[in-house]
Amino acid sequence: MARPASALRRYLLLLAQEHLEFRLPEITSLLSLYDGQFSGEQEIRVNSPFWILNIPSEEMARGLMKRTVCAKSIFELWGHGRSAGELYASLKNYPMDKMLPYLQSDSTYKVHIHTFNKTLTQAQKIKKIDALEFLPFKGKVSLKNPEHIFWILEDYGMDPNNVPEEPFHLYFGRWIADGQRELIESYSVKKRHFIGNTSMDACLSFIMANHGRVKPNDVVYDPFVGTGGLLISSAHFGAYVCGTDIDYNTIHGLGKASRKNQKWRGPDENIRANLRQYGLEKYYLDALVSDSSRPIWRKGMLFDAIITDPPYGIREATRRTGSQKETVKSAERRYTEEIIPRHPCLKLISNCEQMLSSHTSRRLITMEKVKEFKDQDQNSYLLDGQYMPYRGHNSFREKYFSGVTKRIAKEEKDNQK
After folding, report:
1. Is residue 253 a contact partner of residue 265, using CB atoms and an 8 Å limit?
2. Which pTM was predicted?
3. Cα separation of 340 and 321, whole Å?
4. Residues 125, 113: contact at Cβ < 8 Å?
C-alpha cells in the first residue's frame, strides 16, 4: 500500500560511478525488500552520483545501506539548490524541530565537504563552511569523533574536460550511514582461496544477490556454480546456498590451478573452503556434478532465488551436450528486446547492460516468479523461429571470435598500407 507523500522523508543518496545501469534496479530491489518503493516524486538523474529519494523512515534508509554496494552514503536532506543562494534559502525553510535534536549544546559535530568532478582548496572549503553560520549550531566541533556529521555536497557535472566555476547542484544533509563498498575489497577474488578463469568479481556478485532480493534463511541455487562466487555473496546475506556444474574437476577442486605460478590446485581449493574462508560454511548445502540442460529436480518449490552467470564459451572450454540437432548455426544479428527470455510464469524486473569491449557486452536480467507452473506452460520457453539462433549455447562464442578475427584482419590490412 502506497504511503502518503507527507509520510515520506527526503534523503540524498551518493552513488559510486560504476555499473551505472545496475544501480537503479539494485536500489529499487532493496527498497522493496524493506517494504518500500519509489514514489512518483523521486528526483533521479540516472547517470548522476546524486539521487534524492523519498523514504518513509531513517530505519529503512539504514537498512538499504546495510545491503547496497552501488551507493556510498545516504544523508537526511536538509536543503538543496542550483546555487548557493537557493541552498541557503532551502535550509532556512527546513523545519526547525527536525534540526534541533542534532544541534544541541551538549553535542559534538563536524561539517564535511564532498565535491564531484572538482577539487577545492582547504581555504575554499572553510569559506563554504563559514557561510553556514546562520544555522543554529550550539554544540562543539569535533573533527575526530563527532556525534553528528553534516555534509555539503556539490555537483560540478559529468564532463571532466569542461568543469564549471560554480556547481550545478548543491546539497546539505545529515549523514546517516555508508553503504557496503568495503565488501568489494574484503571479498576480492584476488584474495580468495579457490578461483577459476571465469570467477565472478565481488562487486557484481553482491549486485546480483541484491537484484535477487536474497535475504536470511532463503535457499539460493546457482546452476552454473563454477567456483561459487555467487554462493558467497548470497551466503553473506544469510541465505543457504547450493549449486551444480558440469565440470567434475571444478566441483571437486581438482586439476590445474588458475593462479599464475601455481600448477595444481591444493587440498583447500574448493567451494566449501571458499565459504569457510569468510565464516559462511554453515550456509553451504552442497554442490552437485550435473548437466543443467537435463532435469534433475523433483517438481515443486525448491528455491527462493536462482542466481547464475551462464557460460559464454570465451575464457573456458565448453562441453557440448544434447544431440547435434539442437545445435543452431549462429546468425549475424544485433541485440533486440525481443530476444530476452520470456515465460508466462516470470515477470521481467530489470535488464541491465555491462559493456565488456567495443563489440561485446553482457546483460544482467532479473525476473520474478508471478504464478505457479502449469502443464500448459510446458513449452512456453520456445520462441518464434526468427529468434532460434540465439538458443545455441556456442552462439556468443562464435560471434565473439568472428568479430575478433575480422578486427585483427582489418588491423593487419591497415598496417600494410
Report:
1. yes
2. 0.84
3. 23
4. yes
